[in-house]
Write a structure and sequence with these properties.
The complex is a heterodimer. Chain A is 66% helix and 2% strand. By secondary structure, chain A is mainly alpha-helical. Chain A contains 10 helices and 2 strands; from the N terminus they run H-H-H-H-H-H-H-E-H-E-H-H. By secondary structure, chain B is an alpha+beta fold. In chain B, 46% of the residues lie in helices and 16% in strands. Chain B has a 5-stranded antiparallel sheet. In chain B, a hairpin with a 4-residue loop joins strand 4 and strand 5. Chains A and B meet through helix 4 and helix 5 of A and helix 1 of B.
């Protein structure tokens, strides 16, 4: 049992990372990551939705006829996202000001549907929720990193706006360079592609190096399944 | 094959409907629960925004409910009806908050909120939404730059019509090198909003008075209802007493 949870965690965070290995849900990934805080916010929201949707589908998976499973999954995901959107708007309005525009985007993020389809539809609720959360956290890490790179290169700042998400105490973590005019390209859409490509390259480099070190198998370059 | 194709289809459709019903029910419940807090939050957010364009101590009325509907208009650039909020101090109109939309920004519409004193002097302008290039044209947004404050205290009297342009076009308004399109659109729209205000303010005030009258006519009904409720409250103990005696 413990080994299973460990595998789920490493799968989500590294081996099957949604952002740089599976390359699922590129739309929000590329569009939203203009700053680290944007990436982190969308990442957290996605992780929560994924845990919730996996957790909701897994217990009822035996009652879903095979032919209509995708529409049912989409129905469940869309309802959950709306519920979360409304609840945050009502009870955490300041957070909604920051996350508000990202939450409806999660519905169209195909990583959510992909995990429901490939994991929650075949596994027990607890591992399913963990899988959703870990996959989401893996994506959140990539989003934050990509956002941080684009923000640093584009504006010469790091984590600006963090206080809007975590309160004024987070201001200590924010950093701003004094004389950097910024490279606009990084903030514009091409910067997202370049940044993501860089992250994928770095991850592949790590992967190849570790397989070379282990010397057990020939270096295998992980092939990304694009959607 | 123990079940026919039809039976199978009905069964599948049935479970789809069941899931849809559960989903709808869940959404309906959550919507009911969150409706009031969300409306309250939005009113609060709106009031906070109003505060930025018109100082809150300059008026004493319930500004959110003191409003006039404006039909689509070229000067304001609204393609649907928009709303003007009118501020009163001791029942005298002191200012107005108008929404206007500039269609000639660099990318998409720029929505503006303009607060104007009754004498035609601008008290504040804020960009509500825009899609200008981050790092270039987005300095029109107060969250990024204080540029938008150059409109504070401006009026048609103070600045002649041909001066309502960015400096590059021969006007008097400052802009940042490299991004002229966004401020040009904002300056033009603020100017047009002022023109709209000057020509329409009397009509708007009259319309607001009209609305207020109808609202006043409705008030007595409300008080009657309240008094009925109070009566019921008074009746309750009697009922209880009757029940006891029975």
């Amino acid at each position: 049992m413990k080994q299973e949870y460990k595998d789920i965690t490493t799968n989500g965070l590294w081996t099957q990372n949604a952002g740089v290995v599976q390359l699922l849900g590129l739309c929000p990934t590329l569009a939203v990551t203009t700053s680290a805080v944007n990436g982190l916010s969308l990442g957290i929201a996605t992780a929560l939705v994924m845990a919730a949707s996996n957790g909701a589908v897994s217990p009822v998976r035996r009652y879903i006829p095979n032919e209509i499973r995708v529409p049912v999954f989409i129905l469940v995901i869309a309802s959950l996202v709306t519920v979360i959107d409304l609840s945050i708007n009502a009870f955490a309005h300041d957070l909604h000001k920051v996350l508000g525009i990202f939450i409806p985007l999660i519905v169209v993020n195909c990583i959510v549907l992909a995990r429901v389809e490939s994991f929650a539809a075949k596994n027990e609720p607890v591992p399913s929720m963990l899988d959703g959360f870990m996959m989401g956290t893996g994506l959140a890490l990539v989003l934050t990193l990509l956002g941080a790179i684009r923000e640093l290169v584009g504006n010469g700042t790091i984590l600006v706006g963090l206080d809007l998400v975590f309160g004024p105490s987070a201001q200590a973590l924010m950093w701003q360079s004094d004389n950097y005019s910024g490279l606009l390209l990084a903030v514009l859409p091409p910067g997202a592609f370049l940044g993501l490509a860089g992250l994928i390259a770095i991850r592949n480099w790590f992967e190849i190096r570790s397989t070379n070190k282990a010397n057990t198998a020939p270096p295998a370059i992980p092939v990304a399944a694009t959607h | 094959m123990s079940e026919s194709v039809l039976q199978h289809a009905v069964k599948t459709a049935g479970s789809m409907i069941a899931f849809a019903l559960v989903g709808t029910l869940m959404l309906a419940i959550i919507y009911e629960i969150t409706k009031d807090p969300i409306a309250e939050n939005e009113a609060k957010a709106r009031l906070a925004l109003f505060k930025q364009v018109l100082p809150s101590d300059s008026y004493d009325n319930d500004i959110l409910n003191s409003r006039v509907t404006i039909e689509p208009n070229d000067l304001l650039g609204n393609k649907q009806t928009s709303i003007a909020n009118i501020a009163f101090m001791n029942d005298k109109p002191v200012g107005m908050i108008l929404e206007s939309i500039a269609h000639d920004g660099y990318a998409g519409d720029i929505k503006l909120l303009v607060g104007i004193h009754m004498n035609g002097v601008i008290s504040g302008v804020r960009v509500l939404t825009h899609k200008e290039t981050p790092g270039l044209g987005d300095y029109i947004d107060f969250a990024r730059d204080t540029w938008i404050s150059i409109f504070d205290g401006q009026s048609l009297k103070k600045t002649a019509s041909d001066q309502w342009k960015v400096q590059k076009d021969g006007g008097q308004f400052d802009y940042m090198v490299g991004a002229t399109i966004s401020p040009r659109a904002v300056v033009k729209k603020v100017h047009e909003t002022l023109q709209f205000f000057n020509t329409e303010k009397k009509a708007l005030l009259a319309a607001q008075k009209e609305q207020k009258k109808t609202a006043l006519a409705e008030v007595p009904e409300g008080t009657i209802e309240e008094s009925i409720e109070i009566n019921i409250e008074h009746d309750k103990p009697k009922e209880k007493a009757k029940k006891v005696s029975k």
